[in-house]
Amino acid sequence: xxxxxxxxxxxxxxxxxxxxxxxxxxxxxxxxxxxxxxxxxxxxxxxxxxxxxxxxxxxxxxxxxxxxxxxxxxxxxxxxxxxxxxxxxxxxxxxxxxxxxxxxxxxxxxxxxxxxxxxxxxxxxxxxxxxxxxxxxxxxxxxxxxxxxxxxxxxxxxxxxxxxxxxxxxxxxxxxxxxxxxxxxxxxxxxxxxxxxxxxxxxxxxxxxxxxx
Length: 213
Prior knowledge:
Low-confidence stretches: 1-13
Strand content: 15-25%
CATH topology: Peptide Methionine Sulfoxide Reductase, Chain A
Order of helices and strands: HEEHEHEHEEEHEEHH
Largest sheet: 7 strands, mixed
CATH architecture: 2-Layer Sandwich
Shape: globular
Mean pLDDT: 90
CATH class: Alpha Beta
Structural class: alpha+beta
Strand order of the largest sheet: 1-9-3-4-2-7-8
Helix content: 25-40%
């Protein structure tokens, strides 16, 4: 019984979930045309709270938005995505300066910030909504992504086979407002303290690129 109670408490506190209200949203679908001189890219690698925090720490990244991509349901909500029936994964849309950082380098960030060998799982989070997806928007990005997957697979960076999906980005839906900059706004959350921050610290040790001060 003691082990059962501990397991239930662990699932309650150590998961990428929030007590925020699932309020109706407006203008969920974001355009994929970036501002002049900028570019956008999308990545799914588990909890979007973690991903957003990591990518925004990289030099050349202007901002990251938490949301949903890779599915078929129009205007998905957090509660609906969590049913694992919409096909979406928790995803971030990264706005960056291509003169400072390339799409290829963002892929390096992607593979340095999560475990791409655990199918439908990242840390304590399990389900298809937490799967690893490398999105591309055009043939050039697709070729870059494919080559990076091949190179990573041949390297010794990961002991197990990569399970990352390669998928074209057709639509991105912004998550509820309370998910945006979640780590900055709720640093005391048990999940943030025990999962997000350790994951960020591990990334900083692995990644060799430039990080913001």
